[in-house]
Design goal:
Elements: E1 7-10, E2 19-23, H1 34-40, E3 45-49, E4 53-55, E5 58-60, E6 64-66, E7 69-70, H2 72-93, E8 100-105, H3 107-118, E9 125-129, E10 147-153, H4 161-173, E11 177-183, H5 191-215
Length: 216
């Protein structure tokens, strides 16, 4: 595979574990969320790409025109490229493309939300730390009860609480099963929400394993 993204891939340590697609925030890179991914799902495979867009030298996953104002044409293009990268990586690294869980923070959470809305089927679940509505496709996709864990800060000055609530409603309208977890702080990622996400993901993976067992 000729990767379009600089990235890290760490294989699963046991069979039956998912692959976490780790998506950093503005100014981050492919190393940033590796430790968090291991904490959230010990032993799971981790695929961590670096955003291809530079904003004042800081990597991002798509362009924006101003704070909170996205370049929607670029967002659509970059979302398609990321979806294709995940598919190519699944073939190269031999992980199950039907068991990819996004873990995104800020800009990374926004493009993970765009993956859900524009390329349904790429993600089996998603953890969105401090995300906002990336775009509103018409018509909405059919997300088929895809589990989504969304965190938001009550004092977040970058993402007003109304934006988080709007994203939750949008994903629910598309059929996703959304858990919205409020945090008392701002935009930073804190230990309480990572612990809550870890608990949520453990329950989600257990439920998924039981469902697969019943089908076999």
């Amino acid at each position: 595979m000729q990767p379009e993204f600089i990235h890290r891939f760490l294989p699963a340590q046991a069979e039956g574990l998912p692959t976490l697609l780790l998506l950093h925030g503005t100014g981050g890179n492919e190393q940033d969320l590796l430790e968090l991914g291991e904490y959230l799902a010990p032993g799971a495979a981790r695929l961590s790409p670096r955003g291809q867009v530079l904003e004042r030298g800081m990597p991002r996953f798509f362009r924006r025109l101003a704070e909170g104002v996205f370049d929607l044409e670029d967002l659509r293009q970059r979302t398609a490229e990321l979806a294709d990268f995940v598919s190519a990586a699944a073939r190269e690294y031999r992980f199950d493309p039907a068991r990819v869980v996004a873990v995104g923070y800020s800009n990374g959470a926004n493009i993970a939300a765009a993956l859900l809305l524009l390329r349904p089927g790429v993600l089996s679940a998603a953890i969105l730390f401090h995300a906002m509505v990336p775009l509103e496709p018409d018509p909405l996709p059919a997300l088929g009860a895809t589990p989504v864990f969304l965190t938001a800060g009550k004092l977040d000055t970058m993402i007003p609480p109304a934006q988080s609530e709007r994203l939750a409603r949008l994903l629910e309208s598309a059929g996703a099963k959304v858990t919205l977890a409020w945090q008392p702080g701002g935009h930073s990622l804190g230990p309480a929400e990572t612990e809550a996400a870890r608990t949520w993901l453990g329950g989600t993976l257990s439920t998924g394993a039981e469902s697969r067992a019943r089908r076999t």
